[in-house]
Amino acid sequence: MSLLDIKNLSVDIPTRHGVLHALKNIDLHIDAGEILGVVGESGAGKSLTGAAILDLLEPPGRVVGGEIRLSGERISGLNPQAMRQIRGKRIGAIFQDPLTSLNPLYSIGQQLTQTILTHLPMTAAQARQRAVELLEDTGIPAAAERLDQYPHQFSGGMRQRVVIALALAAEPELIIADEPTTALDVSIQAQIIELLVRVCRQHHAAVLLITHDMGVIAETSDRVAVMYAGRVVETGPVEQIIESPRHPYTRGLMASIPRAEAQVERLQYVPGNMPRLSDMPGGCAFHPRCDRAMIDCTSLVPLLETCSARSQLACWNPLPLGQASDEERA
Amino acid sequence: MRWRDSDLFHSFSKTPIAWVALAVASVCVLGATFAPWVAPHNPFDAASLHLSDALLPPVWLAQGQWTYLLGTDDQGRDILSALLYGSRISLSVGLTSVVLSLLLGVSLGLWSGFAGGWLDNFIMRVCDVMLSFPSILVALLISGVGRAFLGSEHASFSFVVLVTSITLTGWVQYARTVRGATLVEHKKEYVQAARVIGVSGPSIMLHHILPNVMGPVLVLATLQVATAIITEATLSFLGVGTPPTSPSLGTLIRIGNDFLFSGEWWITVFPGLMLILIALSVNVIGDWLRDALNPKLH
Amino acid sequence: MLAFIFQRLIQAAWVMLAVAFIAFLLFQYVGDPVLFMLGQDVTPEKVNELRSELGLDQPFFVQFYHFVVNAVQGDFGISLRLGGKVSTLIVNRLPATLELAVAAALLALLLGIPLGVYVALHRQSAMSKLLMTASLVGVSLPTFLIGILLILIFAVWLGWLPSFGRGEVVQLWGWSSGLLTIDGLKHLALPALTLSFFQLTLILRLVRAEMLEVLRTDYIKFARARGLSERVIHFQHALRNTLVPVITVTGLQLGSLIAFAIITETVFQWPGMGLLFIQAVTYADIPVMAAYLCLISLIFVVINLVVDLLYFWVDPRLRSDH
Questions:
Q1: I need a surface site. Which of A149, B100, C61, C133 has the fewest CB within 10 A?
Q2: How far is C130 from chain A (nearest CA, A)?
C-alpha cells in the first residue's frame, strides 16, 4: 500500500471570468521513504497539488473531485480539526522562500518548541532539547547557542535549514517540498538539496519534491511525475524518465538538462508556451507544441494509463519504448 | 464610447453605494450652488425676517409651519434656507482651498523632485514637520496670527484667512506624492534625452511627469474636499471661521448649539446632518476612486 | 543603539529649536513683545525700562537667545486676555487635558483593537460589514458634531450624563484629578468618548488592514502547514505581528489627541489647555499661543522618541546592528 495515494484529484478556481480547471484528474502515489519528484513549467499545477494534499488551497480555489489517502485512510474532505492534526504531524511542508517562511518576531527556538509541543507529548525542556537535536541534524553549527536567535540573524541557506528542521519537528511520514532551493543562492542550492534528502532518509520520511529544475530531480528523485497544464502526463523511475522518456513533452524537458557528457551544440528547448488555464486547446493540451501530434490529439484528451508497475503515461502517440533519444545523444 | 468600456466605469457601476453617494453629493452641490433660486427664503435679508416666527419647530412637530419646513432660529431665519446658503459657503471655501492647495502642492512637488539637492531636502523637511502636527492646530495658529496681524480689520478678511489656513494645511500630501513620482520619472531615459536636447525643465514637468501623476492626485483631491469641508466647519464652530453674517454650516451649528438645552434642537441638528451628508458622500466617492485607480487590486 | 538614541535626541533638539524660532517670531513681530512680557497694566516707565533692557536694537540672535532661555524656564510672559503668567495658566490646565487625552486613548485602544481583530477574522459576517460602514461614517464625522450628538442624546434627551465642565475634582500634590470621584468620572465620560471616536475608527481600520496583510504572509502559511491551531496562529503569530505597526501609529496619535482636545474641550467647556488655546486664538493672545505651540511640540517630540524606543523593544530585527 502506498503511503500517499491521490486518485482523480480535480481542483477548480472560480473567477470573475468563469471557472478555471486548475487540476484535472490527478493520479499520483508515493511509497514510504520514496522521493517523488514532480516537475513541470510554472503554472502546471505542481504547487496546487501540494496545497491540495494539505488542504491549504487559497480560496476561492477548491477541490471538486477525487480523493487523497494517507496510508489507506482518506484525508481529503476531512474536517478542519482533523486535518490540523495531520499537518505537521504526519505530513510536513517546506516552501520556497526561507526569508518569509519564518516569523521575524519570534526566535527560532520558540518557533521550534511551539511546533514540537503542538504534536508531541513532552515537557518544555525536552522540547528544547529536541529542537537542538533537529538543528544539529540540519547542520547548524553551535545549535544550542543559536536557538534563541532570530531569523534575521541567519543567512539564507541557514534559514532554509531551520525551515527543514521545523518541517521535520514532529516526525512526519511525508514532506512536501515546494521549490525548496529556488530562492537560494546557486552556490548553496546543491548543499540544501543534499541535506534535505539525507535528513529525510534519516527520519524515514518520504518526499514530494516539487520543482521546475530538472537537474535537481535527476540528482535526488527515485521516481518522477511530469505535469503539464493541470494534468500528469508521465510518471516513471528517474532513470527511465531521463534516458528514455515516452511523452514528447518529457523528452523536451530532458533535452534541456545541460549535461557534461553530451556534446550538444546548443540546448534544446520546446518551442511555444504552456497554454493558460483560461485558454486551453481542445484535446491534448500539448498538441500545439508537439511534433508528433496526430488528428486524435486535437480532440481527445489522453488518459493517464499504467504502463508498468512504476510508470504511467498519457499520450496518443508516445515515443516508442526503449528508443533512447538518439538524436539528442549524437 | 470609450469611457463606458473603461475599468473605471465598470467598477463604478458595480458599486451601487458609489451611485448613491454621487447622487447625494450632486443634490447637495446643486442645492448649494443655486441656493438663491432654490431656497424658499433669504435668511440674510434682515428686512424679510419676522421675529414673530422665531424658534418655530420643523413642520412635522406641533406649531410647525409649511413655509418653514425645518423650523426657524431665534431671529426667525428659515433653517432650510440657511442650510442651502450655508452649504454654499462651506462648499466654496472647501473647494477653493482644495484647488489652491493642489496647485501649491503639485508645483512644489514637481519643483522639489526636479531640482533635487538642498531645495528638495528643505521642502521635504518642511513637509515632515507639517505632517507631524495635526492640521487643525496649524490652521488655528494661522488664523490666530492672521487675526493678530490684521487687528481690528480681521473681520473683513476672515474668508481670506480661513482659506489660507486650510490651504496651508493641505498642500503637503500633494507635494510628497508628486515629488515621489517626479523622482521616478526623472530617472527614466526619455526625460534625460529631453534634457540633452534642451527641452526646458518646466516643459518636461508639465508634459511628461504631470500626466503620470494625475491619478493619485485626483484621489487625494477628492478625499481632501471632505477634509477641507470638515476643517472649515470645525474652525467655524470654534469661532475662527466664517462670521455669523455669512455663516457656513459650521457657524450655523455653533449658533444652534446654544439652543440645545432649551429644546430647540433643530437649529443645530439639521446643519449637522447636511454636513455629514456632504462629507460622507464625498468620502465614499473618494474611497471608490482610490480603489478603482489602484492597480494592485485588479 | 545608544548611537540611535543620541541621534534622535539631536533631531529632537533641532525640531524644538525650529518651533521655538517660530514662537519667537510670533512673540517679537506680531504685536508688542514688551506688553507680552509685562502685561497691559504697567506704567510707561517700566515699559521703557524693559524696552531698553530687552534692547530691540540688539542683534536678532541675542533676542532669540533670551527668548529661548526664558522659554526653557517656562517663562512666556503675561497673557493679554487674562493678565496672569502664561506658565501658571497652562500648568493649571494641564491635568484636565492630560486626563482627557489618556482616557480617550485608552478607550480607543481597548475598543479599537478587539473590534479590528474581529472584523479581520470574520470578514463576511453582518456585524463586520456594519462595523466597517460605521467606521467609514466615523471618518466623515467631525469631532464637534459627535460631541453635540452625544450631548443631545445622553444629556438633553436621556439626562444620564452631564455635558459641561469637569465636575468634582480632587487635588493630589498639585495635580487636580477628576478620576477619583464618581461625579468627575461622569463628567469625563462624554468628552472622552467624543475624543476617542476618531482614534477608534482609525485603529479599527488599521488593525483590520494589518491583520489581513499578515494573514496572507508565508510565515502564517507555514505555521498552518505545521499544524498549529487557529487560535495560536491568530493570537500568537498574527496578532503580535499586527500590533507592531499599530503601536507606532497609536503612540504618534496620542500627540494629536492632545491637539484635538481643543475641539472637544470647546464643545464640553472642559477647562483644559485646548480651551485656553482657542480662547487665545479668538483674542489674538500671542503669549499663550506661543507657549501652547512650544508645549505641544515638546509633547510630540517626547512621544515620538518614546515610540521609537518602543519599536526597538518590540521588533528584534532592529536590535542587532544590521
A1: C61
A2: 24
pLDDT in tens, C285-321: 888 888 888 888 888 888 888 887 877 777 777 665 4
Q: What cell does A74 get?
A: 482518506
Place of cell 518548541: A113
> Which has more confidence, B263 or A229?
A229
Type of residue at B148? A
Which residues in chain C are contacts of A131 at CB distance < 8 A? none
Residue of chain B nearest C296, judged by CA positions? B133
Give the residue numbers in B contacting C (CB under 8 Å), as ranges: 129, 132-134, 136-137, 140-141, 143-145, 147-149, 226, 230, 233-234, 237-240, 253, 257, 260-261, 263, 265, 268-269, 272, 275-276, 279-280, 283-284, 287
Instruction: Enumerate domains of chain A plus CATH numbers.
Output: 31-56+79-329 (3.40.50.300)
Q: What is the CA radius of gyration of chain B?
A: 23
pLDDT tens string C167-220? 777 887 778 787 778 888 888 889 999 999 988 988 998 899 889 889 888 899
For residue C223, give every residue at least 6 positions away whose Cβ sits within 8 Å of its Cβ, in sequence order, or none: A103, C232, C233, C237
Please identify which residue in the block is written with the cell numbers 540528482: A219
Of the candidates A328, B148, B79, the one whose C-alpha atom is nearest the C-alpha of residue C35 is B148
3-state secondary structure chain C: CHHHHHHHHHHHHHHHHHHHHHHHHHHHHCCCHHHHHHCCCCCHHHHHHHHHHHCCCCCHHHHHHHHHHHHHCCCCCECCCCCCEHHHHHHHHHHHHHHHHHHHHHHHHHHHHHHHHHHHHCCCCHHHHHHHHHHHHHHHCCHHHHHHHHHHHHHHHCCCCCCCCCCCCEEECCEEECCCCHHHHHHHHHHHHHHHHHHHHHHHHHHHHHHHHHHCCHHHHHHHHCCCCHHHHHHHHHHHHHHHHHHHHHHHHHHHHHHHHHHHHHHHCCCCHHHHHHHHHHHCCHHHHHHHHHHHHHHHHHHHHHHHHHHHHHCHHHCCCC
Query: Percent of chain C at pLDDT above 90?
Result: 12
By CB atoms closer than 10 A (0-12, 13-18, 19+), residue B207 is exposed
Handedness of CA C130, C136, C138, C140 (dihedral sign): negative
* Cβ–Cβ gap B148/C284 under 8 Å: yes
- ipTM of model: 0.84
**Comparing C-alpha atoms, which of B124, B92, B144 is closest to residue B278?**
B92
Contact A175, A168 (CB under 8 A): yes
**DSSP helix/strand/coil, A48:** helix
Task: Give B43-86 pLDDT, tens digit per residue.
Answer: 777 777 777 777 777 777 777 777 777 788 877 788 888 888 88
CA A218, A223, A229, A230 torsion: positive or negative?
A: negative
φ/ψ of A43, rounded to 5, equals 95, 0
Task: Output phi, psi for B78, to 5 deg.
Answer: -70, 125
Quick check: do A and B touch, 3+ CB pairs under 8 A? no
**Sheet containing A73-74: order of strands:** A18-30, A4-15, A62-70, A73-74
- Give Cα B36 to chain centroid, integer Å: 21
- Confidence band (pLDDT; 50, 70, 90) for A265? very low
Strand partners, A12: A21, A62
DSSP state of B253: H
Say how far apart CA C247 and CA C250 lie, in whole Å: 5
Q: How many CB atoms lie within 10 A of CB B191?
A: 18
SS3 A207: strand
Distance from CA of C284 to the nearest CA of A (A): 51
Distance between CA atoms of C262 and C289, rounded to whole angstroms? 13
Strand partners, A67: A7
Instruction: State how far residue B14 is from chain C, nearest Cα, in angstroms.
Output: 18
Centroid of chain to Cα C278:
15
